[in-house]
Amino acid sequence: MSPTSPPTAWDDPDSSRAWTTLITWAVLGQILWPLVCIGSLLLILGPEWPVWLCFAPLLYSGYRSVLQHRYFTEAFQIRRILKAYAWNVYKTPESGIGSVPGAKSGDVWLKLPNPEQPGDLIPVILHGHVRSPWWRRRLGPGVKPEKMAQVAEVWFAGDARFAGVLAVPGPRRLFLVYQHTTKGARFPAAER
């Protein structure tokens, strides 16, 4: 970022606007997916519709209704991080899919500097999530150059050892990343 950048990412109007978009979609999903689920169920119960046509929308909207709660809570975790940390810009960070400790075979990762030892790189894993395929199609081996160019510069607000928010310049595509701990919690009480 430039020397005139705000002290925290939240102080940047574009960051708060990106978060507002994120929370707006989370709230709309919290309302609309259950309505689609109920509407599909009502169509199944009606005798005039072919029942089998409504099962796919019913199952998918039920799945999204359950998943939507995670989007909502992650949006507030993102806001908390944006209020505490400034954006750091990284040009073409080392990245890949799988092959780092703690990553499953399909997990995308980036290596970002350790805040205490800038020469030391820490792999930050973008754990499986509905929003992670966008990143997966742009990072790692075998990616087309035009797609990789979309993430040639990434913004990161947070501490790579614990949690942070990853974004493409703008900021856009806000994504919560966190390190799994041995205790299993996303954010251990001592580090919150």
What does this structure look like?
With 192 residues, the protein is α+β, with helices and mostly antiparallel strands. Strands 1-5-6-7 form a 4-stranded antiparallel β-sheet, with helices on one face. Strand 5 and strand 6 form a beta hairpin. Helix 1 runs antiparallel to helix 2. The longest helix is centred in the middle third of the chain and has 34 residues. It is globular and about 65 Å long. The two termini are 26 Å apart.
How much beta, percentage-wise? 15-25%
* Rg computed from alpha carbons, rounded to a whole number of angstroms: 19 Å
Following the backbone from N to C, one meets helices and strands in this order, namely: HHEEEEHHEEE
Which shape, going by the Cα principal axes?
A: globular
SS field, number of helical segments: 4
- Estimated structural class: alpha+beta
In which order are the strands of the major sheet placed? 1-5-6-7
Distance between the termini: 26 Å
Count of extended strands: 7
Major sheet: 4 strands, antiparallel
Averaged pLDDT: 80
- Helix share of residues? 25-40%
Segments where pLDDT lies below 50 for 5+ residues?
A: none
